[in-house]
Amino acid sequence: TLLPWTTVAGKPTVLLDIANRRFTFFGFTFLPTDTVLLALLVLGTFLSIFFITAVFGRVWCGWGCPQTVYMEFVFRPIQRVLMGRAGVGGKPTKPVPGWRYALLYAVYLVICVHLANTFLAYFVGVENLNRWISTSAPWEHPGPFALVAFVTGLMMFDFAYWREQMCIIGCPYGRFQSVLLDRHSLIVSYDHRRGEPRAPLQRKRDIALPQAAAGDCVDCTMCVQVCPTGIDIRE
């Protein structure tokens, strides 16, 4: 979010000026004649993500992905405050008046408009963006205005409705991430040998399972409830 708004060596931290074919990354500007260097930069970025996944597991999805960061640290906390929901969501703990729903989506809209303008700033620069916002009308720049409106609509749909389905269905990286992991990767997984057979704690006491036959999993479903995507790690 901060990359297009900050500068390095007097240049935007990241600026993808497609119209003038100038691409700036952390103080370095690449021209069309620097195609090899730009390709190496992009390739190195992808290889770094693959390497980090192979070593540290799904750390990108948990801590680096914008979908997760904005959902879990921006939109969902706002929802908890206004709707009184616990955990990752679920039904409100008490009846919610209509004005709270209206306020919730109004706050979401303001945040999405800001994020859409930030997205546009990656391509046109902060100076141009601020000038267009403060001194010109939307119809004077129909292309950028349409882009901001379109991205705002996509973000509202994503963060207000689709949410975890983006990770489960829409994200291609989430699909092929599993093939990048091996037995040496850091993974959060369920130990079937230790957990099975699973049963509620009281039932284990009632049927007096031998210690060797009783699994450690008490089937409380807390692992499913706290998972943002609702995945049952035991399956």
Describe this structure in words.
Helix 4 packs across helix 6. The mean pLDDT is 85. The longest helix is centred in the middle third of the chain and has 27 residues, at 98-124. Helices cover 56% and strands 6% of the residues. By secondary structure, it is mainly alpha-helical. A 3-stranded antiparallel beta sheet has the order 3-4-5. Strands 1-2 form a two-stranded antiparallel ribbon.
Residue share in helix: 55-70%
Biggest pleated sheet? 3 strands, antiparallel
Instruction: Assign the structural class, choosing from mainly alpha, mainly beta, alpha/beta, alpha+beta, or little secondary structure.
Output: mainly alpha
- How do the strands line up in the largest sheet? 3-4-5
Radius of gyration: 24 Å
β-strand amount: 5-15%
Point out poorly predicted stretches: none
> What number is the mean pLDDT?
85
Distance N terminus to C terminus?
36 Å
The string of secondary-structure elements, in order, is EEEEEHHHHHHHHHHH
Number of helices: 11
Coarse morphology: flat
Strand segment count? 5
Short précis:
The chain is mostly helical and 235 residues long. It has helices spanning 35-56, 59-64, 66-83, 98-124, 126-135, 142-162, 165-170, 172-176, 192-195, 201-207, 222-226, and strands at residues 7-8, 11-12, 14-17, 22-25, 28-30.
